[in-house]
Design a protein that fits this description.
heterodimer; A: alpha+beta; 4-stranded mixed sheet; 5 helices; 21% helix; elongated; B: 295 residues; mainly beta; 7-stranded mixed beta barrel; 6-stranded antiparallel sheet; 2 helices; 6% helix; 29% strand
């Protein structure tokens, strides 16, 4: 067990200096679903798993999500070995470590004209200008993907921008929609169904298979949203 | 000039597939690739191709192609009648097409997906390392259409491997059984064991994303109980596996195939063991299937 507890953080009144707590769930005969307490633990554990040679050799696919990491065993490697790897690594990983390497920083210029902006303001008790100021003021970081190619769940926003998903999802959210839900922010890379609250739009291309890398925002990427209206643009709020 | 196959007719759906794109889950791209990997692999081996050579996956046969130049091909997967200029041939052995000859696939009597491979593989620029058409994310080549001219790659030196010539055929529809392991979210259900009670019937809405299952109409619910959740908690989206049996609120399970989403927001009650997923990919709409807990 790791003794160092030098880097600690508080989330609400819950003490977060602890080691990563894992619960291993069987997922067929070729994969394990590793359940942890929260997204910070997901990030710490994912970084530690990727940095471990034995784990990299034993796993074919690693899928981080909000509270889980799915690990698929590589052909010829044993699920029990993979489970032993995860347990060993979890016991040596401090959930409060900023172990997940930060990727590139990207700026996303946004026109804050989303159809749900007023509703988000009402739900949070903020003015629309305050919503925009908080959204542009935060240092967002991509935690994980999965919904669609190039879609990334961004964390690190202010707690007062936490809003629920819409009660009814839209059948077609336009590409470039900048959205909030459940404490996350995201940009829809392509038109798709979606239930998040839409606060703005960007012209930035999030996903392009002919670009290397194809995803503008991938896990680790730091994202700053910039209000186009404050950049000499003429669009009023 | 390199040889080509000109598409005269496609069946319901013909797509290029190969081994897929592993390792891109974190940017939201699933593996995709041949739905019945063992049939796809066997037919490539039969031609001495590199493993991973692109082949055509045909749903319910129906593909018809004309050779431009000399092309050696073979057919695996769902058993299907093969003709060359109208003459029946055994597609499970390499078939040589001369310039101008027409190869046709009939409709399989059982199974769903047949694989047409050519010696040298089909040649095209890969997308993110693969020539697979991912029908969920839209990544990869477009669906094959009439009039397309499909380039055939130069033959590699690999020897033909006839050991796999007895390609994997799907079960004949009487009562196919798939082995499953419980979890990861079996504890979200009142009676998860009910998955393996009675038969399920394959819905017409099944596709490469998944096999959608209903209970057969007119069957006593005690013989084919519905799957009920314990409560209406919401599950945070989590990674899902090939072969996972996810249960949406309707209670009608979806057995995930090659183009499954990277993550899912409904609980997975059980996962089909890896060796049975290829058979699941050959299930036809209307076919009955049952699950069996792996001991």
């Amino acid at each position: 067990m790791r003794a160092s507890r030098s880097r600690r953080s508080y989330h609400g009144d819950r003490y977060q200096g602890a080691l990563v707590n894992v619960r291993l769930l069987r997922c067929g005969d070729r994969a394990l679903l590793v359940e942890v307490d929260d997204v910070d633990q997901v990030l710490a554990l994912t970084a530690a798993l990727r940095a471990d040679d034995a784990c990299v050799r034993a796993s074919a696919e690693l899928v981080p999500a909000a509270r889980t990491v799915l690990l698929e065993a590589r052909n010829g490697s044993d699920l029990a070995d993979l489970a032993a790897c995860v347990t060993r690594i979890a016991q040596a990983t401090d959930a409060a470590d900023e172990a997940a390497p930060l990727g590139a920083q990207v700026q996303v210029p946004v026109r804050y004209d989303g159809p749900d902006l007023a509703e988000v303001a009402a739900a949070t008790g903020l003015s629309t200008d305050e919503v925009i100021a908080r959204h542009t003021g935060a240092r967002w970081r991509a935690a994980f993907g999965g919904f669609a190619p190039g879609f990334a769940y961004l964390i690190g926003g202010p707690p007062d921008l936490t809003v629920p998903r819409r009660s009814e999802s839209r059948t077609a959210v336009p590409a470039g929609s900048v959205a909030l839900a459940g404490g996350y922010s995201a940009v829809y890379p392509a038109q798709s169904p979606g239930g998040w609250q839409l606060i703005g739009t960007t012209e930035v291309i999030l996903w392009d298979v002919d670009r290397d890398p194809p995803a503008l925002i991938r896990p680790g990427t730091v994202v700053r949203f910039v209000d186009l209206a404050n950049r000499g643009g003429s669009a009023p709020h | 000039m390199a040889a080509e196959l000109e598409v005269l007719r496609t069946g319901p759906l013909s797509l290029f597939q190969d081994h897929g794109r592993p390792g891109l889950a974190e940017v939201g791209v699933g593996r995709s690739g041949a739905a019945d990997r063992s049939s796809y692999t066997a037919v490539n081996r039969l031609l001495g191709n590199d493993s991973g050579a692109a082949a055509i996956e045909c749903v319910l046969g129906g593909l018809s192609v004309r050779a431009h130049g000399r092309v050696v091909c073979a057919v695996g997967g769902a058993p299907v009648a093969v003709t060359v200029d109208g003459e029946p041939v055994d597609g499970r052995a390499p078939v040589e097409l001369g310039d101008g000859q027409v190869l046709k696939l009939g409709t399989p009597k059982r199974g769903l997906r047949s694989y047409l491979a050519v010696r040298g593989g089909f040649e095209m620029p890969p997308v993110l390392g693969s020539c697979s058409s991912d029908t969920l994310s839209g990544v990869g080549p477009a669906q094959i259409a009439r009039g397309d001219r499909l380039a055939v790659g130069p033959a590699t030196a690999g020897p033909a491997d006839h050991a796999d010539a007895g390609l994997i055929w799907a079960g004949d529809g009487a009562d196919l059984s798939l082995q499953v392991l419980p979890g990861p979210r079996d504890d979200w259900f009142g009676s998860p064991a009910d998955l393996a009670v009675g038969q399920w019937v394959v819905s017409a809405h099944s596709n490469r994303v998944g096999v959608r299952l209903d209970r057969p109409a007119g069957v006593d619910p005690s013989a084919a109980p519905a799957l009920r959740r314990k409560d209406s908690r919401e599950l945070d989206s989590e990674g899902v596996m090939l072969g996972a049996v996810q249960v949406p609120p309707s209670g009608q399970p979806v057995l995930f195939l090659a183009d499954h989403p990277v993550t899912g927001g409904y609980p997975v009650i059980a996962v089909v063991r890896a060796a049975d997923v290829d058979r699941a990919a050959q299930l036809r709409p209307g076919q009955r299937v049952r699950f069996e807990w792996q001991g």
